[in-house]
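Q&A log
Question type: sequence-to-structure
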Amino acid sequence: MKPAKAMTIRLSAEQAELLATVASVDDQPISEVIRAAIAEHIEQRRRDARFKAGLKERLARDRRLLDGGAR
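Response status: OK
Response body:
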């Protein structure tokens, strides 16, 4: 398992207050609420056909670059 990576995010005062409220009501640390939201967002993107098509195009473009340039 890879070690955890620390990240910094900036929230508006309103977002921070709302996030703290959600965490408090759910009796969870703010960091856990953030991790759960990120995991849910990633899963939604994985199921999105447009996202998958864009990902395939990006991978193909990167592969072309690695293979010797744009073709």
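Response note: Residues 30-47 form the longest helix (18 residues).
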